[in-house]
Design goal:
Elements: E1 2-6, H1 12-20, E2 25-30, H2 37-49, E3 54-58, E4 75-80, H3 82-94, H4 104-124, E5 129-134, H5 145-164, E6 167-172, E7 175-178
Helix pairs in contact: 3-4, 3-5, 4-5
Length: 180
């Protein structure tokens, strides 16, 4: 498992794609969901820019159902993006209440269940796997509660993924630096 991290628009997606570009087949797992017209445009742009031999699966739950020991070792897997997956879990689980009433410890436990299952699936899968995530902890402390908890949860998830990964890349200004 390879983890690629970096800030927004750092070039991490392009770097992740370069790591698997030589594979004859790629399974691209997209975790984004369409919530508005802008997001629909972004997702369509990404769909249109992927090579024809890439198979795209748009999902963010139960990833262990598609990352399995039965996967073909000649088909690379690119999952983008972990921080979007975290966002999806938070809002799917906490949507019944106002954000100020969310139990972030319980929500983080739900995130960890999915991340632990993902790590276990990646460790059992014979396919090369690249996970893309955002480094969200290098800026100022966010002013609102949701953003602070999101930053903290994403940071801990990234640490867990980096620990489990064979290689970790940090991408800054389009340049990837292998840090593990």
């Amino acid at each position: 498992m390879i983890l690629v991290t970096g800030g927004a628009r750092s070039g991490k997606s392009r770097h992740a794609e370069s790591l698997i570009s030589h594979f004859p087949r790629v399974r691209y797992i997209a975790t984004s969901q369409i919530f508005d017209a802008e997001m629909a445009e972004r997702i369509q742009h990404h769909r249109d820019s992927r090579p024809a031999h890439w198979h795209t699966e748009e999902r963010w739950q139960h990833l262990a159902d598609i990352i399995t020991p039965q996967n073909d070792p000649q088909e690379a897997i690119l999952l983008e993006c972990i921080t979007t997956l975290i966002t999806n879990i938070l809002f799917a689980s906490g949507q019944e209440e106002e954000i100020e009433r969310w139990d972030f410890a319980a929500l983080e436990n739900q995130v960890n269940v999915e991340i632990d299952a993902l790590i276990a699936a990646c460790q059992q899968c014979p396919s090369p796997i690249v996970l893309v995530t955002n480094e969200v902890g290098m800026g100022i402390v966010p002013e609102n509660r949701l953003a602070r908890h999101f930053r903290d949860i994403a940071g801990r998830v990234n640490q867990k993924l980096a620990q489990a990964a064979d290689d970790v890349w940090l991408v800054v200004s389009g340049i990837g630096v292998k840090i593990k």
